[in-house]
Amino acid sequence: MRLNKFIAETGVCSRREADKWIEAGRVTCNGQLAALGTQVTEGDEIRVDGERLGAKKKQIYIALHKPIGIICTTEPDIADNIIEFIGHPERIFPVGRLDKDSEGLILLTNDGDIVNEILRSENNHEKEYLVTVDRAITDLSLSMMASGVKIMGETTKRSKVSRTGANSFRIILTQGLNRQIRRMCSALGYKVQRLKRVRIMNVKLGDLEAGKWRYLTASELQGLLPR
User: Fold this and answer.
1) pTM, full prediction
2) Hey, what domains does the chain have and what are their CATH numbers?
3) DSSP 3-state of 3
């Protein structure tokens, strides 16, 4: 097993974060400084910052309806961080982000594999949002959003967009640029008043109330986990 996968499966971080720790010289294998790509077997002694990592933990998969004001960070010194808000006894981390001013579905886990699977851009996984803007939105603007809008020096991928009201719409993205929907709307002259994520791949927010969370079902996991 690759070292980054071993570290991720103990629940302390994602594989990507584990690689950063290895590159920074924070990880040892059997007393020797570890390198990227190191292979480990059962019985190897893996330490991070001198502390030995335990055995693989039970994998946890949670769907949270993040309310407005909660920040998707694991940093404990940041007020209103998502980890403190959810208060789970195991060490978990959010899969991706949902900005402070937005609400809706976000997944949390201790499984680094699923983080990589969902966030890898080339996988083109769908995320669905309901958006309300500050004034009536034109059909032309919706069409432009669907075909791609230039933000931050690049044109967004094609998306599925449908009107839900005079100043509201549904959008399904397959990429996750920083504050993408808000930037797309701004580029077309609109300001987002409400942004709610209602689906990630096959997992739906449903009637889960703001601030509440639940464990994913077996069928949801089957659709999420890499094959």
Assistant:
1) 0.77
2) 3-52 (3.10.290.10), 61-120+206-224 (3.30.70.580), 126-200 (3.30.70.1560)
3) helix
Report which secondary-structure segment, H or E, holds 6.
helix 3-9
Q: DSSP string covering 25-89, please?
A: T-EEETTEE--TT-B--TT--EEETTEEP-SPPPP-EEEEEEPTT-B----TTSTTBHHHHH--S
Q: Is 207 a residue of the active site? A: no
What three-state secondary structure class fits 179?
coil
Q: Both tokens of residue 16?
A: 């990507």
Q: Which of 19, 49, 99, 113 is catalytic?
A: 99
Identify which of 185, 14, 44 has the alpha carbon closest to the alpha carbon of residue 101: 185
Per-residue pLDDT of the chain (227 residues; tens, 9 = 90+): 899 988 888 878 888 889 999 999 999 999 999 999 889 987 889 999 998 887 666 889 999 999 999 999 988 899 999 999 999 998 899 998 899 999 999 999 988 777 777 877 677 889 999 999 999 999 999 999 999 999 999 999 999 999 999 999 999 999 989 999 999 999 999 999 999 999 999 999 999 999 999 999 999 988 887 65
Alpha-carbon distance 4 to 215, whole Å? 25
Which tokens belong to 103? 């609400």
In this structure, what token pair is assigned to residue 27? Answer: 């990880």
- Strand ranges, E, within the chain: 27-29, 32-33, 46-48, 51-52, 61-66, 93-94, 103-109, 127-133, 150-151, 154-155, 160-165, 168-173, 192-200, 203-204, 213-215
